[in-house]
Design goal:
The complex is a heterodimer. Chain A is of the alpha/beta class. Chain A has seven helices and ten strands. Chain A has one domain (about 5-225): Rossmann fold, CATH 3.40.50. By secondary structure, chain B is an alpha+beta fold. Chain B is about 55% helix and about 20% strand. The longest helix of chain B is centred in the C-terminal third of the chain and has 40 residues, at about 310-350. Classes of the chains: A alpha/beta, B alpha+beta.
């Protein structure tokens, strides 16, 4: 496998079983993403775009096909190596932010570094810098229940950036926000991509959101449309 | 340490532990408290019984074989190695007698001790309730023979310090077999020998008074011996009997004086430990279900942690730590609760008649906390708790991130 692409998916299929009935969500998907590319996958509900994103992020396994990162087959790795890979190279952003409710904003941002074995003292400055970049310095000790939807999502973005990942994978990042907050998040993504040369893969059903991205792929019924 | 911190933080709702965790801790604490109280009571019972016996009998009781007429001291018969273990020894004489007073009488057992050496071996002074310490220089009355009696006997006859006590012994007579002989003693003190039967039957006096009164000879002397380590008394007595005394004396240890009782209490302690462990096992099912609730309630958080790079092994670790935190808190609370119960028992013992001395042989239980017992309870409960965490931990570890997100 050539490693000219940062991440590639080859012939990805995914099926779920409801009793004896097979539900094929992805049907032989191929995808190649280069370093620094900002890609938006657009599709309606049930198109299979989130499933593809989770497979790219190794949160789920495909029924068939493989995912390659810099030419290396990710699903040949064991659980420990995959966990390390997610920690070092990927940053996830979910529709419902998924912040840990028992930890404050700063602790949530530091979490990936702490999982990597970095001490609180050593990663605090970086977390505070990200918090500042998100314009939320005054929210450091606030718990998720004390933050607005937009603030939570910006904290989630800061958390995803904590380990300076190669790829940001975002699943409907504005799906739970009003249009004003949605615009803020979209601009933040594009700004990050430009400034940090980040590779961003976003899935959304929001055509307006997708229109701002330089590259958009349409998905329907588990295949590219 | 990071995962321990994570486990501790994710157990909490706000600043407090979740209600299910608190209920598990209480359940475990009650089980541990039951075990602690039982262990403390049994250890105290054994300890009090041991002290009672050693205070009166010493570590080793040496009785002379009456068919042996040799005047050789027992110390001459034993090897220098064994002699080194002996701290002190004192001769004694025994005689059965009858207390006769104002129309009442009671069969008793009189022991005569050598006033010069007895206090090096026995701890009779600590058993005094009222009057003068046994065998102190001022307590020895040159004109009248001094005697110390158990407190139940004193109650029965109404004896107080300074009263005269009539003692009758049977004397072997060549004419008509036995004839009674009476002597008046001065009651110098009332003793609490620590056991109901001792307090009712035992009298102590100096060996010379008893010897002349009961017409006993030096050949009847037995010895009470104090050795360096009381716990080795059984082995020491066995060695004396097998290798050293050649049948002139028979040695018995403090343990053999109440051998059945000590053996029964020892077995009881082990059996009770395992029976009460069932309470801990039941309580640990609570811990297990609490962790299951945590696993189910934290499906999403487990998925998020996995997406950030936490391995299945470390997810398991988090839930095992949570179980052990509950276990440790339950254990500590149980030890405190058990300790409080023991102190309440001490208070009840001092203020209410909770220990029936006729049934339990002892007048009062001296509560002793044995670190080994407390640690054994801790080790057993933490181990069971650890086992209880395994199934929920494995379930948490196996959860795929996608299942976690889908569950929500």
């Amino acid at each position: 496998m050539s490693n000219e692409f940062l991440i590639s998916a080859k012939n990805i299929s995914k099926s779920f079983f409801q009793g004896e009935k097979e539900l094929q969500v992805l049907k032989g998907i191929d995808l190649n993403v280069q370093q620094g590319e900002a890609l938006c996958i657009l599709g309606g509900s049930g198109a299979g775009k989130s499933t593809l994103l989770h497979i790219l992020g190794t949160l789920d396994t495909p029924s068939a096909g493989n995912v390659y990162f810099k030419g290396e087959n990710l699903f040949s790795k064991n659980d420990e190596d995959l966990a390390k890979f997610r920690n070092k190279h990927l940053g996830f952003i979910f529709q419902f932010h998924h912040l840990l409710s028992e930890f404050n904003a700063l602790e949530n941002i530091m979490m990936p570094a702490r999982i990597d074995g970095v001490s609180k003292q050593d990663c605090k400055a970086r977390a505070e810098e990200l918090l500042e970049q998100m314009g939320l310095s005054d929210r450091a000790t606030h718990y998720p229940t004390e933050l607005s939807g937009g603030e939570k999502q910006r904290i989630a973005i800061a958390r995803a950036l904590m380990q300076s990942p190669d790829i940001i994978l975002a699943d409907e990042p504005t799906g739970n926000l009003d249009s004003a907050n949605g615009r803020v998040i979209r601009d933040l993504f594009l700004d990050l991509q430009r400034r940090l040369n980040l590779t961003i893969i976003v899935v959304t059903h929001d055509q307006k959101f997708a229109s701002s991205f330089p590259k958009t792929l349409h998905m329907k019924d588990g295949v590219w449309n | 340490m990071f995962y321990f911190w994570l486990a501790l933080r994710t157990m909490k709702t706000g600043k407090n532990f979740s209600l299910t965790a608190v209920l598990s801790i209480i359940g475990l604490a009650l089980g541990v408290a039951c075990m602690v109280v039982s262990m403390v009571v049994l250890t105290s019972y054994l300890g009090t019984l041991k002290k009672t016996v050693i205070d009166i009998y010493g570590d080793i009781n040496l009785v002379k074989n009456i068919s042996v007429s040799s005047d050789k001291s027992f110390m001459d018969s034993i090897s220098p190695d064994l002699q080194k273990s002996i701290v002190a020894h004192t001769p004694f004489l025994n005689s059965s007698a009858i207390v006769v007073q104002k129309g009442k009488m009671s069969a008793v057992f009189v022991q005569g001790f050598d006033s010069k050496t007895v206090n090096k071996v026995l701890n009779l002074g600590s058993r005094l309730v009222e009057g003068e310490k046994p065998f102190s220089a001022e307590s020895i009355d040159q004109e009248h023979s001094s005697i110390w009696i158990g407190r139940r006997l004193a109650e029965q006859f109404g004896f107080k310090q300074g009263d005269t006590l009539n003692l009758v012994v049977p004397i072997d007579s060549s004419i008509d077999n036995f004839k009674p002989k009476l002597k008046k003693f001065i009651v110098k003190g009332v003793m609490s020998f620590g056991r109901y039967d001792y307090d009712l039957r035992y009298l102590i006096t100096d060996v010379e008074s008893l010897k002349s009164f009961a017409e006993l000879s030096d050949k009847n002397y037995g010895y009470r011996i104090k050795i360096k380590d009381s716990d080795l008394a059984s082995d020491f007595a066995l060695k004396l009997n097998q290798d050293e005394l050649s049948g002139d004396y028979w040695a018995s240890s403090w343990r053999s004086i109440n051998a059945n009782l000590f053996a029964a209490a020892d077995y009881e302690k082990i059996i009770i430990f395992f029976v009460l462990l069932i309470i801990i096992i039941v309580a640990c099912f609570n811990v297990s279900s609490t962790l299951f609730v945590n696993v189910l309630g934290q499906f999403r958080d487990i998925a998020v942690l996995k997406s950030m790079g936490v391995t299945a092994k470390n997810i398991k670790k988090i839930f095992i730590y949570q179980g052990l935190i509950i276990g440790f808190m339950g254990y500590i609370s149980g030890v405190i609760l058990g300790g409080l119960c023991c102190y309440m028992f001490i208070y009840a013992q001092e203020n209410l008649n909770v220990l029936n001395s006729q049934v339990y042989k002892l007048e009062q239980l001296v509560i002793t906390f044995d670190v080994v017992d407390i640690l054994a309870v801790g080790f057993a409960s933490m181990f069971i708790c650890f086992l209880a965490t395994l199934i929920p931990a494995i379930k948490g570890g196996k959860l795929t991130p996608m299942k976690g997100f889908r569950y929500e």
